[in-house]
Amino acid sequence: MASALETLCGQAFGAKTYHMLGIYLQRSWIVLLLCCFLLLPVYIFASQILKLLEQTYEVAEQTGLVAVLLIPLHFSFAFQFPLQRFLQCQLKNQVIAWVAVAGLVVNALTSWLSVYVLDFGVVGAAVALDISWWFTVLGLFVYSSCGWCPLTWSGFTMQAFYGLGSLSSTLLPLDLENWYYRILILMTGYLKDATIAVDALSVCMSINVWELKIPLAFFAGTGVRVANELGAGNGKAAKFATKVSVAQSHVVRCPLSFLLAITILLNNVQPILSGVAVGCGWQAWVAYINLGCYHIVGLPLGILMGRVFKLGVTVDSRRNFLKFRILENL
Asked: Record keywords: Membrane included (predicted)?
């Protein structure tokens, strides 16, 4: 949902209406914080929900425990992701990178201390995540609000409470792709030898997420650049930025294609086109395409192959190809 700021802040920065970036940032905090409260029961009652879905007792209990411990992490999302977009739109990517590195160091230290030294197990790992993510939020907020962004941050303002309805409609097109992958992992719990199936798919998805960070970086960069150029009235420059990003993504995808075959090939270009759409303010189109390709096409295919044809966790990439073609034509 925070990706809407790439459109709003990006175009405002390109149009040199700098004060609006801080207002958009604060409005997004309010809307996303309210969404966090709405989603809070899912974290609190995660164990009961999974039991109703007939997941194994042990998995449901452990998941419920971790979900409650990750509630602070859940609320940190409402602040960190808008702060990242706020700074990206001002081309302050190095700041985000250095704060992320510091957060990684904090996470490594707290994880080692809580898991290996104090032997808190998965509880310690969850608490370490909470600490490191809030450390990142604090670092980004201090940089944004303590004088390093004088044009775009002028302090807290009551204007942030106006226009929340229109902002909510811009934020609401969700990233249904992430939901798709989480549902897939949940579905594997019903397969034969569920423990092995869940482990295998989780490892596969983890590798995919690591690899996906590269095209997601292109997604963010392309979205910001396209929004900046459109805000400044430079349509040709926006088209050129799109071509450069797609070309670079094609080069990067080749060394990575052996990891997850065709899925990697498509995932390296697909986020670029999504970024262009976000930069143009077409979040609704991206949401509809994600809904159709992942949930109307992808999930039924997964159920069909996993439950009917007994193919287990075999990866299918046809919904990726479909989404790629739709975005390319858009």
From this structure: yes
